[in-house]
């Protein structure tokens, strides 16, 4: 079997922040389906991997529901509703999309869906019934070809913190002869007429459950399952509330009174409770969906059924992901997003399993502004920019390095030897503050114990110290990520007049370049910083509007900048007389309104690994390669020009990245990200023809399930330096790159180098 050219290896995402965006399929090996941005993600909680993405909605997915089979086997159909006014019926086969049917009719966003299989009395075939409710104040029932009379229990929840269980049953048409003195529950009756047949139903209030202290957002019955060929229907109810707890309810076996069996939830952290909850197929696992997108998974202890332990589950940004970077060794990824968080994803390498899964192992920054960009200063140091005028520099604490080594299998002594100075243990955020404050060993030692704190506390003062060091052997839970994985802030960089937009670091890690939003030339200046003293080195003034991206050449001789003003500028480093002096850059080449090739904003740029050429991508759908031209003119301004034919990729270009390795034919490998969410791979090599012809080769592009559903913000190839997978069995054959986008997701792809 021929290996595919392009595969997705890992996906990081989380559910949308709406009720009903989560559903767990019935049957063995049930998959978890949830809406993330405009996609429906199928996730396997046992293997801890994303199985596939279902792309079809054009706006946020608001609700998802698996359709349970009557024989208790694994579900293969699900239905989803979105803000695009659509209901989509999906059919799955072998964990891949078989067919999608778009049901159009609503005139407003769809917020609730439910579906079931039904067999009519006069028909042998099963029929699929789908019910959808939307903000257009309509409930629609959809029927597709494809009941028995018994009591039904309906659970409802509301903002009064209570759960009510209602009993729905068919009311007997015979005359009632009961004594009026008997006490009986008040019942409401209604009649349904179908094909001249009238059926009377009655509804009574069975019980009221009080246990939550805030709004109850969701209730979910444990699904039925087959045991020894007999259909079992456990009477257990799960509820999720804004009080950060999830409660498992069941009637007492002797008295029949509904009681709380298990209560689980979040402790600490700046969170706002749960939106939704679900059982797995046999009730041994429960999951909650939190306000900030996080999933919380608990598993029942087989030896002690009343004990539930937290489990590892997928996590990711709950808003657009703006930037990402591989670490210099190519062993983890750091991302920033408009959800105001910085997240670090790394592989979990277990001794007893060959499969490696990636997880979020740290959340170095939880900010108060939307984050826009970042750059790696060293392996465990980065700088981030947000919708503020300040750049912030972060360094990894000792506790993170210890946990990183334990989870990824790295040598702790080797990593600690490369760290300078006395590392803090961790970090914490003061009340009403934005800066992560370092926590040292002596700070932890001086903390009073919980008992001492209770005895000596005279007021309800906010306790600033929230960090507690711990050694992990597996990826942390959401509670741990929120409180114990922050990195201390070591420096603030002031100098820009408006919100930071992009940042880049030289390959020698000696210089940092930053730029901010600008509408005038003086504000569009690029500031160069010394990463040792953190002092400003130089201001580079040329562009008249916002600089959208910058890139240092691999040999650090040039700095390239592209701008919203549709031009690029190339700055050359001057020869340094003394090693103690900071490098100075001067304008080497540029384009203007006359020489410009791009007619729209230039979003992205990157260098070839040999520093000979640079690539630019624009909203005008063009990708152009630039380099030194064979010209008789000695003027510096005209020494750089287009070296390729203009590549039209068919859509607005938002990201360009060049692989640090060439393919087997010694051609440059270029990844292009589009505004529609698609990633295209090309190879390019300069030819001797004038003009350039057939220099570009289209290799592959992502399929619908592999693509993002909104604009791609950044593409980044993995670094290959002889210490990573390049030395392993598949290292010479497979290349890796990561992507992030406005659809809240981060994806890692692997590319078959031999097939390019």
Percent helix = under 10%
Secondary structure tally, helices: 5
What name does CATH use for the topology of one domain? Answer: Methylamine Dehydrogenase, Chain H
Q: How many strand segments?
A: 56
First-to-last CA distance: 17 Å
CATH architecture of one domain: 7 Propeller
Q: What is the overall shape?
A: globular
The CATH class label of one domain is Mainly Beta
- Poorly predicted regions are 453-462, 631-638, 722-730
The main β sheet shows up as:
5 strands, antiparallel
Residue-averaged pLDDT: 87
At the fourth level of CATH, the homologous superfamily of one domain is YVTN repeat-like/Quinoprotein amine dehydrogenase
- Secondary structure category: mainly beta
What is the CA-atom radius of gyration, in angstroms?
29 Å
Proportion of residues in extended strands = over 45%
> Oligomer, anyone?
single chain
Please describe what this structure looks like.
It comes from Enhydra lutris kenyoni. InterPro entries: Elp2, WD40/YVTN_repeat-like_dom_sf, WD40_repeat_dom_sf, WD40_rpt. It is found in: Cytoplasm; Nucleus. The protein is mostly beta strands. Among the domains are: 17-146, 7 Propeller (Methylamine Dehydrogenase, Chain H), CATH 2.130.10; 148-172 and 187-274 and 281-317, Methylamine Dehydrogenase, Chain H (7 Propeller), CATH 2.130.10; 319-369 and 393-449 and 464-490, no CATH class. The chain contains five helices and 56 strands. The strands form 15 sheets. Strands 45, 46, 47, 48 and 49 form a five-stranded antiparallel β-sheet that branches. A hairpin with a 4-residue loop joins strand 51 (668-674) and strand 52. The longest helix has 11 residues, at 398-408.
